[in-house]
C-alpha cells in the first residue's frame, strides 16, 4: 500500500507557531565622522584646490583690484571640484558628506566661543611679543563697498570653505588612520601652515592659527558637525574685520 498523501492545507497550524516572515536587514547608517572617501580622493581634491588657489594668486597679482571677486570665484571652483568627484564616484552631495549636519549645540554659544578665542589669542600674542606684520587685510577695504565684500568673505565664505576642507574633508580621514587626537592635531598643523604665508611665516601667527585649528577640530569631533565650528570661525574672523574698520575709518577721523 502506498502511504496516503497528506494535504498541507489540512494540517492544523499550532496557535503558538507563526508563519515565517523574511527579515530584511536595514543597512547600518553611516557615522557622520566615518569618511567614505580615501586618500586617492584626498590627493586629487587637495591638488585641485592648490591649483585653484595658485591661479587665484596669479589673478590677484595682475588684477589686485579684483582680489575679492577672484577669491569668490576660487571658492566656487573648489566646490565644483568636490561636487564632480563626490557625485561621479559615490553619487553623494558635498555638504552632507563633509559634515553639514544638524546639531543640538547652541550656535550663539559657538559664536561667543569664537569671540572669546580671538580675545584669548590676542592676549597671548601680546604676552609673547608677537611682531606686527603686514596682513592681507591691510590692502583691502579701502571703500565701504570693498569693506562689505571683504566682510562677507572673511566672516561667511572663508570659514565655510576652510571648515569643509579641513574639518570636513581632511580631519575625518586622518582620524580614521591616526585616531581622533592624531587627526585633529595633524589637521590643525596643516591649517596653521596654510595661513603662514599670509603673515610672513612669523611663527607666533602660525602657532596661534594652529591653536584655532585644534579648538575647531575638537568641536567638530564632539558635535559630529562642521556647523558650530564654522560659526566659531566666522565670529573669530569678525574681530579682524572690526580691527580693519577701526584702523581705516575710526582712527583716521
Offer a concise description of the structure.
With 253 residues, the chain is mainly alpha-helical.
Give the helices and strands, then pairings.
Elements: H1 39-62, H2 67-90, H3 107-127, H4 144-178, H5 180-194, H6 203-223, H7 227-250
Helix pairs in contact: 1-2, 2-4, 3-7, 4-5, 4-7, 5-6, 6-7
Distance between the termini: 118 Å
Number of strands: 0
Strand content: under 5%
Largest sheet: none
Counting H and I runs of at least 4 residues, what is the number of helices? Answer: 7
Overall morphology: globular
Oligomer: single chain
Cα-atom radius of gyration:
26 Å
Query: pLDDT under 50 segments (min length 5)?
Result: 18-29
Residue-averaged pLDDT, rounded?
85
Give the tags.
253 residues; mainly alpha; 65% helix
What does this 3D model show about the protein?
By secondary structure, this protein is mainly α. It has a domain at 98-250. It contains seven helices and no strands. Helix 5 crosses helix 6 (203-223). The longest helix has 35 residues, at 144-178. The model is unreliable at 18-29 (pLDDT under 50).
Amino acid at each position: 500500500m502506498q502511504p496516503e498523501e497528506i494535504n498541507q492545507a489540512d494540517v492544523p497550524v499550532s496557535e503558538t507557531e507563526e508563519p515565517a516572515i523574511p527579515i530584511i536587514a536595514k543597512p547600518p547608517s553611516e557615522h557622520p565622522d566615518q569618511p567614505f572617501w580615501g586618500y586617492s580622493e584626498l590627493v586629487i581634491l587637495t591638488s585641485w584646490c592648490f591649483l585653484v588657489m595658485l591661479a587665484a594668486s596669479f589673478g590677484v597679482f595682475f588684477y589686485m583690484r579684483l582680489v575679492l571677486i577672484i577669491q569668490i570665484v576660487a571658492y566656487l571652483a573648489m566646490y565644483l571640484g568636490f561636487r564632480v568627484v563626490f557625485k561621479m564616484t559615490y553619487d553623494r552631495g558635498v555638504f552632507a558628506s563633509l559634515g553639514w549636519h544638524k546639531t543640538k549645540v547652541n550656535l550663539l554659544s559657538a559664536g561667543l566661543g569664537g569671540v572669546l578665542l580671538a580675545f584669548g589669542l590676542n592676549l597671548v600674542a601680546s604676552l609673547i611679543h608677537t611682531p606686527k606684520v603686514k596682513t592681507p587685510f591691510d590692502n583691502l577695504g579701502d571703500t565701504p563697498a570693498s569693506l562689505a565684500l571683504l566682510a562677507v568673505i572673511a566672516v561667511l565664505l572663508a570659514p565655510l570653505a576652510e571648515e569643509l576642507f579641513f574639518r570636513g574633508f581632511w580631519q575625518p580621514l586622518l582620524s580614521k588612520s591616526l585616531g581622533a587626537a592624531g587627526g585633529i592635531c595633524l589637521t590643525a598643523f596643516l591649517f596653521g601652515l596654510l595661513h603662514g604665508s599670509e603673515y610672513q611665516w612669523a611663527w607666533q601667527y602660525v602657532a596661534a592659527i594652529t591653536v584655532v585649528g585644534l579648538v575647531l577640530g575638537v568641536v567638530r569631533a564632539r558635535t559630529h558637525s562642521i556647523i558650530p565650528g564654522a560659526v566659531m570661525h566666522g565670529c573669530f574672523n569678525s574681530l579682524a574685520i572690526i580691527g580693519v574698520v577701526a584702523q581705516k575709518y575710526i582712527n583716521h577721523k
